[in-house]
Design brief:
15% strand, 38% helix, single chain, 2 domains, alpha/beta, six-stranded parallel sheet, Rossmann fold
Length: 304
Amino acid sequence: MRTQARGLARAVADEVIEKVVLARPPWRNLPNGRLILRGLEPQSDLIGPPWPDLIVSSGRRSALIAREARRRAKGAPLLVHVQDPQAGARDFDLIVAMDHDAVRGPNVVRVATALHDVTPERLAAAARIWRDRLSRLRRPLIGVIVGGPAGRAPFGLAEGRLLLERVLAMKAAAGGSLAVVPSRRTPDAVLALFADAAETDPDLWVWRREGDNPYLGVLALADRLVVTGDSTSMVSEALATTHPVEVFTPRLRRRHQAFVRGLEARGLVRILDGSWTDPAPRLAVDSTAEAAAAVRRLVESRRS
């Protein structure tokens, strides 16, 4: 969620200050931003003047804090929220929501993918850094981005084995190689499963969460991307490239299922089954620019 808010803010403003609010229990679960601010952790960023012209928030707790910040600033900042704030939607000047978000209203702008800060410039920079390091891997290079459990949707060894089986089948059909990048949510047992397989397979490279993170480099340099569907952000960031994207969908939450199926219906992703196909070329898909344009219109309307 922080990536979505940060990506939108950076696409709109020349100067962006990121604030991370960490509240202690029971304050963090209270339904009032004023009360939450009374129970901040010592390392939490302070919320106070000088007040900005625009506040971009994401997440239920951040929505409460944004509303409280505007109250303290006597209504000065514009409020933009990413995703469904779940309460007080009419208090926001603009809400950027995806199709599966329940929020409705005249202040809601709908986008097809999650917002993020994976720009063409960042991808180009990552490609320059990682090109030599990934050059030993045979083409076509299949980048595998692995998430983890999400809510009540499990992602353990059973899901990891199925994913490994399917990407190995794809690699064999293509005659290429795999570059596997786990996230911080990937269970250690699943990472170990892929790492063990790499010990005997020179065409399987796994980042073991040590040293520089190759995530952006793999996004930039892979010929094809496989992403687990537990993260709308990871799928959306993969679509910000021009590479074919396949999504692994073992057992997903309902909202994630709806997101992936919507992308599949539009021909933007394919459900991973282990086969190798030659899809038609596509343009990069990035909803951040669309949302940023809506925010700029909002800012201009206040000035005029």
